[in-house]
Amino acid sequence: MLFSIDEDVGTRIVGWVMPDHPSATPRVAVFMGGEKRVVLPATVLRPLLREHGLHDTGICGFYIDEHQIPDLSQYPDVELYDEATNIRIYRRRPETAKADTKLFRLETRLFPQAGLNDPLQNFFHMTFTRLDRVPEEAVRSIIGIAFSSSIFCSGRIFFRAYEPHLRHQNFRCSVLVRDPFEELAEELLVLRWAVKTPNLAFSVLNETHKPLVNSLGKTSLDEMEDLETWLGSLNSSERRLLVSPVARLLTCRSSDEQLEETAVEAALQTLSEMDVVGLSSDVETYWETLGAVLDVNLPPLPEYSWSRQVLKLTELVREWPSAQDLLAADSQIFTDISEAFRRADEATEEAPVEPA
Fold it and tell me: What are the boundaries of each domain within the chain?
């Protein structure tokens, strides 16, 4: 699915949506005040889409005006969604959207970091926080949005596949790196929860995790140590879903790629080219640095809370040989980053203070 908005002049909004199926007629759901007002089919011919063979008829354009919605110009919070994918393709810029820049944050955690995403939802004009659940073409359409210079997006996606496009569109790129054993501990607890509540779990998990949930469902989960046994029994395809996720996100271009022997060096090189890198153990410094690099006053972070269950399991996981093997690349990356931050802190403390 591709999309674009040509204009919003208050009394009319004009744009187009190209569906994944080339013969389908797209439909746009219009929300006003948080409620669905109407669903409108595309009625406008966009000749280039047909001429380039992207759509059978080219009827992909929409023209929403006050004949269809009499009070269109009176609502500050109009939102448009592609009905087929439920992807928001446009919203009127809220008054709180002070940022006039583009930011992409690589999500490394299985569950998105709401504490980092929520403060930015209305600080930017257009926000997309689950790119990993969006089709590839739609991700590229989001990154390439031309109607706004105020965009924030994040997702657990393969960064190398999108980095050239992000840079071409002038995005600042950022990542918050977490202790890999802590991340694996949380992921194991999430997968165990998914075994018990699959319907609820897959409202937030990606379909790619189904093989792990199915596999874990065949294992005894009476004791935490049973998870270690399960880790050691993974087949190659299941293992690939858990092996050094940060290294994979930073160096691979798809889920089918294997980690190269040079993955650690390649990942560190990618991190060195990012605009802001932080450690989850010092999220406040990361947030301050992000605001300084973007040259904006970011909204305050919500108070962070840490799961005691995750922290307790982390200490067990750290000692498991199977986990150490799975996370070999990520462990080295995390060690090198932590050491770089330690040296930077020491250099700052030792720097002479300039006289007033």
Answer: 1-92, 180-279+299-348
Exposed e or buried b per residue across 99-119, where buried means at least 16 C-beta atoms within 10 angstroms of its C-beta: bebbbbbbbbbbebbeebbee
Dist. CA 333–CA 246, nearest whole Å: 9
Beta-carbon-side half-sphere exposure of residue 329 (alpha carbons within 13 Å): 23
DSSP helix/strand/coil, 32: strand
**Is residue 93 pLDDT above 80, yes or no?**
yes
pTM for the structure as a whole? 0.92
- What is the SS3 assignment for 253? coil
Nearest to 78 by CA among 120, 45, 30, 112: 30
User: Domain 1-92 - what CATH class?
Assistant: mainly beta
b/e burial code for range 39-62 (CB count within 10 A of at least 16 → b)? ebebeeebeebbeeeebeebbbbb
123-155 residue pLDDT tens = 999 999 999 999 899 999 999 999 999 999 999
Q: What are 216-269's pLDDT values in tens digits?
A: 988 877 777 788 989 989 999 899 999 999 999 999 999 888 899 999 999 999
**Cα angle for residues 206, 179, 268 (degrees, 5° grid):** 90
Angle at the Cα of 152 from the Cα atoms of 148 and 263, rounded to 5 degrees: 130
Amino acid present at 98: K
Instruction: Tokens for 23, please give them.
Output: 């013969």
* Amino acid identity for residue 31 in this structure: F
Contacts of 114 (CB under 8 A, 6+ apart): none
pLDDT of residue 352: 65
Distance, in Å, from the CA atom of 187 to the CA atom of 38, rounded to the nearest integer, reads: 40
Tokens of residue 76, six digits: 């500050």
Which amino acid would we find at residue 2?
L
Place of tokens 């997006």: 153
Q: In Å, how far are 91, 113, 154, 281, 331 from 305, measured between CA atoms?
A: 32, 12, 21, 12, 24
